[in-house]
Amino acid sequence: MDDPGAGYGTARALGASRTLWELVRRRAALTPDRPALLQEDRALTFGALHDRAERVAAGLLERGVGPGSVVAWQLPTRIETVLLSLALARIGAVQTPVIPFHRDREVAFALRASKAEFFAVPGEWRGFDHTAMARRVGARGVFEAYDALPSGNPCRLPPPPASGTDARWIYWTSGTTSDPKGVLHTDRSLIAGGSCLAHALRLTADDVGSIAFPYAHIGGADYLVTLLLYGFPAVLFERFALPGALAEYRRHGVTLAGGSTAFYTMFLAEQRETPGRKLIPTLRLLAGGGAPKPPELYYDVVRELGCELTHGYGMTEAPMITMGSPGDAPELLATTEGRPPEGMEIRITDGEVRLRGEAVCQGYLDPAQSAEVFDEDGFLRTGDLGRLTPEGHLVLTGRLKDVIIRKGENISAREIEELLHTHPGVADAAVIGLPDPVRGERVCAVVEQPPGAAPLTLEPLVAFLRAAGLSAYKLPEQLEVVAELPRNETLRKVLKYRLRERFG
Predict the structure, then answer these.
(1) In the listed set 185, 203, 219, which residue is the last one of a domain according to the structure?
(2) Can you give the C-alpha Rg of the chain in angstroms?
(3) I want to staple 445 with a disulfide (CB 3.0 to 4.6 A). Which of 76, 400, 476, 490 is the partner?
(4) Which of 435, 396, 208, 224 is nearest to 311 (CA)?
């Protein structure tokens, strides 16, 4: 390959960039005419990505956004979203992405906790008015950024940020508490995470990737770094559904797809509809993480989709912890989460997986939460249980923290439980995650009812939770009514493992 911007050596050199904007600038200088982002009939090269992001940055500056300004954005996966995010990185603003399907409760908390001075929304999107919601929750500096972005003269911009170790990213995770936690990342931690992913997957400039998940997820920045390191494009999907999305995969010759276990199962189900024809002829690799992967799913994908499957382990606090590599033995790809990359230390303490490395976050917005999550040696306590194989691959065996992972998204059981306790027909409640072949886990509510209450069924309970402001992806899909929840004999704590055994 004679492209000077391709190859592992070039990617390693680019990975040493101090800031995300420096990485954008260096990639644009290397391969300005190579495509970077593809969406429907639109294409943006790396050179245009750099130039347009600078113009957007200048437009934001005219609106009052400056270095250190806190800007929240809740936008779908679009070229404009990537441009806005890079423009904020060029200015040196602090940005806090919010998943598009979050609603009043989560959005209000994120804006309040981050002290956001500006809020970019898509207007009305998929039947929901985000601008009206922004007004309801008292957001400041609201502006729409769906298909039109601010624009100005880049000559007026101040110098880009020189440090990549300042916390300029606030991502949100539910964890085990009812309120989300603001996770502090730096440009360097995001570059480190994306580098780990790119090198493990053995990417090349000839690949064509895809982003079919919300770009506001930390995986969005993670994936963008891989494009910038190796100089290949990605197809963006504002709405992902099969079989509708297949035409775009085929038209652009996608070689790399995935996202999470739920994506693997969707592709596999479509392949089974046409067993004699390869679903995506150019596809060589499915990759992702975010939820448990049954070993048999690996073998089904390889056999039926005719591509490799590499699965990894990450979290909002450390977007890339381990990753399977196409060169790993099949039994390791099927039964483990892959191996930690160079620069990521894993320590197993009392069965718990703990982490230290450049890709690990700086902590949380709440200093008290930060003090709890790091041990005395500076290792992040993940709350996940696991072990390392003799080859150095990680096997996850369970979770200490009470969180449900549905389609790669973390859901706080406590948040749902607290809302259930406000229902007049509920005396006590426990929310658990149960294994699901499509979603990874499904949300199951187990309730006790007060004496004389009318029998409770799933549909009206879901309507109650929806009216209370709970996001659709957190709504229970299963309801079990029991005479009494199982509890221990000391503090009367509900024994959720018994519920999982009973209803799983």
Answers:
(1) 185
(2) 23
(3) 476
(4) 396
DSSP 8-state code for residue 155: G
Supply the DSSP string of 237-267, one letter for each residue.
-SS--TTTTHHHHHHHT--EEEESHHHHHHH
Give the Cβ contact number of residue 463 at 10 Å.
Answer: 11
* Structural domain containing residue 46: 36-185
Last residue of a domain, one of 155, 185, 215: 185
Residue 5 lies in a domain: no
Q: How far lies 292's CA from each of 189, 378, 381, in Å?
A: 24, 27, 19
The pTM score is: 0.85
Both structure tokens of 157:
């911009």
Pairing label, strands 35-39, 234-236: parallel
CB-count exposure of residue 258 (10 Å: 0-12, 13-18, 19+): buried
Domain annotation covers residue 381: no
Domain count along the chain: 2
Residue with tokens 């303490």: 349
pLDDT in tens, 62-76: 999 999 999 999 999
CA distances from 179 to 60, 106, 107, 416 (A): 30, 8, 11, 11
Which pLDDT tens digit goes with each residue over 198-238?
999 999 999 999 999 999 999 999 999 999 999 999 999 99
Give dist(CA 387, CA 404) in Å, integer: 21
